[in-house]
Every structure is written in C-alpha cells, then in structure tokens.
Amino acid sequence: MFGLGIAECVAVLVVFMLLFGPRLMSQLGSRLAESLFGFQRALRSPKEEGEVC
Q: Model's pTM, two decimal places?
C-alpha cells in the first residue's frame, strides 16, 4: 500500500486518532459505513425511467 509497511500504517492511524479523538473517529466510521451501504443499495435498485445513467 504505497510502499508503507504495517508499522507505518499503525503510526499514521495512531496520529490520526490523537488528532481527531475517539468521538469523531466513531462518527466518521459510521458515516463511511452509511455511505457504502447507500451506494450498494443504489447499485442493486432498479433504475427509474427518467435516469440518465
């Protein structure tokens, strides 16, 4: 992953957690999960007649 090892990824994660705190991290995680589930739901739903894509 971009030439980073496990130790570097863990260090980046620790710095990110220290900067943003656990509350914001959980909010970001839940928002990311909601976005992914919404995207999957949109892919599975049939297209409406008026849609361009």
A: 0.52
